[in-house]
Amino acid sequence: MPAAIDIPPVLSPLTAFRNEPYADFNRPEMRAVYLAALEKVRGRLGREYLCRIGDRSLGANEKFQSLNPARSSEVIGIHSEATPAMAAEAVAEAARTFPCWRLAPVANRVEILRRVAGLLRERKPEFAAWMSLEVGKSFPEAEADVAEAIDFCEFYALQMLHLGAGTPLPQLPGERNLLVHLPLGVVAVIPPWNFPLAIMAGMTVAAWVAGNTVVLKPSSDSATIAAIFYELLGEAGLPAGVVNLVTGSGAAVGRALVEDARVRAIAFTGSKAAGLDINERAARSAPGQRWIKRAILEMGGKDAIVVAADADLDAAADGIVASAFGYQGQKCSACSRAIVADAVYDDLLERLQSRIPKIRVGSPQDFSCAMGPVIHARAMEKILGYIEIGKSEGRLLAGGKRLTGPEFDEGFYIAPTLIADVAPRARLAQEEVFGPVLAVIRCRDLAEGLAIANDSEYGLTGAVYSRDPQNLALARRDFHAGNLYLNRKCTGAMVGAHPFGGFNLSGTDSKAGGPDYLQLFTQAQSIAEKI
Ligand code: NAD
Looking at the structure, do residues 390 and 409 belong to the same domain, yes or no? Predict the structure, then answer.
C-alpha cells in the first residue's frame, strides 16, 4: 500500500490570491437585488448585436437568435452569422494590432484587467441575470460563474506581474542570464456555452494580458453574454482591436479561424469531437504559415465518484447528487458515474433515491428550484436518447423523462435520472451525456472501482469517498484524472486552489486558474548578455 504523500507546500506569491465570495441567497434582500437585475435585463432582450472588428461594428446578412432554454420562444439576442471572410478580417485586425499591443507595459495590461474584474464585480447581478435567461442557470450557479470570471481576472493579473518580471536563472560568470516570456501573436478563443462568462472571459483575458491579440468566437448559444462582456472590455479601457468578436457557427467561423495561417494559437474549450477536429486542422501548416500553432484544448468528461465500503454514505450521496444534477449535469466536471463498493451498494442507492425526489425542477429564476432546463431541443433529444439506451443497459430508478405541463412552459426540462446496475463498458458508462443522468456501477472494492473509473477515454475530474487514509493514498496513486477530489464532490473547482484541466481525451491539461496557465499564452526567450 502506498504511503500518504507528505510534501511540504512551497509557497508562491500566488498564494496571496483570494476567491471572490459568493452571494448569500438565503437573505431576502440579496434575492431582491438579483430579481431587480433580472427585470432590468428583461427590458433589454431581443436586441441585435454586431461583430466587432477593431473599431468597426459589422453585421452579416444572415442572423441567428439565442433563445431562453426555459421559454424557447423568448429571444435573448440576435447575432450575425459571420462568414469565413469576416473571420479573416478579424484575424487581419488582430494581426495589425499585435505589434503595438505586445509593447504595452505589463503594468498597464494588468491595470486594465483589474478594472475588468472591478466592473464584473459591480455588475454581478446583471451578468447572472443574463446567464439565467440565456443558458438556464439558477441564480446561485450563475452568480458562481460571474465569481469565477472575476477570479480568473484577478488571478491572471497577479500571475502576469510575476511572469512579466521574467524567470530568474542561474547566472554564468561574465554573463547576465534571463528567461523572458513573450506573447505569441493572434490567439483564436473558442469557448463553450456552459460557463458562458467564466470560461469565455478566462481564456480571452489570459490571452491579452499576456500581450497577445484575440479573435473571440463565442458559442452561438451564449453569444449575448459574450457581446455584453465585449462592451465591458471597452469600458475598462482595452484598446479596440486587442479583442475582436465574431459570432457564427463552429463549422464556418471556428474552422476559418483555426485554419488561418496568421493565427498563432487556439484556446478552445468544448466537446471532444470539436477539440479533435481543431487539433487536426491546427496541425496542418497553411501556405505562408511560419509556426506550429499551439492548441490549448479542454474537452469533455465522463467523471466518476468512487465510493468505498468504509465511506460516510450520507456525505457520498450528497456529493454525488450535487455533482450529477447541479446545472442539470451540464458541467464537464459533472459526476455521470457513481462506482460503488458492493458492500454498500444497495444502501447508497437508497440514499440517492431518497434525495432525488427532493430536487425541485423548474424556472431558473425561481430560488426554490435546484434544476432548470437543458440548453436546447437538440441537447434534450440527445439526453432522452441516452436515457433510452440506459434503460436497456440498467435499471431505471428515478426520472427518465421530459417534464411537461404548465409550470414547465416551453422549456427543455428533464427529470433528474438515476440508472443503476450499469456495466462498466456500457454506452451509458462510457459516453458523455451532458445532462442530468447518473449511471451507478457496482464494484468489488476500491481497487476495482478505480480500475473501472480509469477505463475511460476521458480523464477530467473524479472523486473518492473513504474514511481510510490507505484508501485515499491508493486513490492519489491510481486515479487517473486531472482534478481529483477526496471526500468531496467532483464539481465546483475554484480558481487558484483547483487548477483545472483533464487527462486523456479530456484535453491538453492546461490547468486553467493554475500557476502555469499564462505561460501557455507565451513563448520563453532565453537572453544571455556578456557583461
Ligand atoms: P462544442 O464543442 O459544441 O462547442 C464549443 C465551441 O466550439 C463553440 O464555440 C462552437 O461553435 C465551436 N466549434 C464547434 N465545432 C468546431 C470546429 N469544428 N472548429 C472550430 N470551432 C468549433 O461544445 P459545447 O456544446 O459548446 O460545450 C459542451 C462541451 O464542452 C462538453 O463536451 C463539455 O464537457 C465541454 N466542456 C469542457 C470543459 C473543460 O474545461 N474541459 C469546460 C466546459 C465544457
Answer: yes
Residue range 162-177, pLDDT digits in tens: 999 999 999 999 999 9
Return the best residue to mutate from 269, 284, 296, 330 for the ligand 1 pocket (most ligand atoms within 8 A of CB).
269
Q: Across residues 12-19, what is the average pLDDT?
A: 82
Return the pLDDT at 29. Answer: 98
Residue 250 lies in a domain: yes
Residue with cell 434544476: 371
Please state the domain count of the chain.
2
Q: Look at ligand 1, atom 8, and give the residue with the nearest C-alpha.
A: 219
Q: Do both 375 and 245 map to the same domain?
A: no
Write the CA distances from 275 to 278, 281, 390, 508, integer angstroms. 5, 10, 26, 10
CATH of the domain at 448: 3.40.309.10
d(CA 76, CA 258): 28
Catalytic residues: 298, 332
Residue 274 C-alpha to ligand 1 middle, in angstroms? 6
pLDDT at 2 over 70: no
Query: According to the model, what pLDDT value does residue 295 have?
Result: 98
pTM value? 0.97
pLDDT of res. 14: 75
Residue 259's domain comprises 28-299+510-530
